[in-house]
Amino acid sequence: MKATVKWLDHMSFVGESGSGHSIVMDGAPDVGGRNMGVRPMEMVLLGLGGCTAFDMVLILQRQRQAVSDCQVEIEAQRASEVPKVFTKIHVHYIVKGSGLDPKKVERAVNMTAEKYCSVSIMLSASVELSHDFEIVEE
User: Each residue of 95-123: pLDDT tens digit?
Assistant: First the structure.
């Protein structure tokens, strides 16, 4: 896996993934950015959310659950001193479907957190991670 990040101007950068997709990153105005893209630390959270949401849908489909939507809300706290690493991250899953089994949803949450989501597992080595979920019946 490879990625390239190139400086554009001010505090704006474009990142290109090995698969050829690009995303703009920018800093906050107080550090010279123009607020034209996501911050790098926000991208870490987006990576976590994307990884775990992918797993959740796949696991629930394999469990033959009638899942119609999966949303992941992530809240993080950062250290107050440099380096301002994440200290706590909470992942909240909102799973929609018809007749979803709460035990199977809980199992999917645990499986993605403990076995399948590479980002979650990598972050859990240095960050306090917590998870919960809610089911919305359709």
Answer: 999 999 999 999 999 999 999 999 999 99
> Which tokens belong to 31?
């550090």
Q: CA-CA-CA-CA torsion for 46, 19, 110, 85, nearest 10 degrees?
A: -40
Quickly state the pLDDT bin for 64 (edges 50, 70, 90).
very high
The residues, ordered by sequence, that sit 6+ positions from 30 with a Cβ below 8 Å of its Cβ are none
Beta pairing class for 86-98 and 128-137: parallel
Question: Would you call 54 exposed, middle or buried from its count of C-beta atoms within 10 A (0-12, 13-18, 19+)?
Answer: middle
Tell me if 1-38 shares its fold with 40-137: no
Fold of 40-137: GMP Synthetase; Chain A, domain 3 (3.30.300)
The CATH classification number of 1-38 equals 2.20.25
Q: What are the extents of the domains in the chain?
A: 1-38, 40-137
Strand order of the β-sheet with 86-98 is 66-78, 86-98, 128-137
Query: How far apart, in whole angstroms, are the C-alpha atoms of residue 115 and residue 95?
Result: 20
Q: What is the model's pTM?
A: 0.93
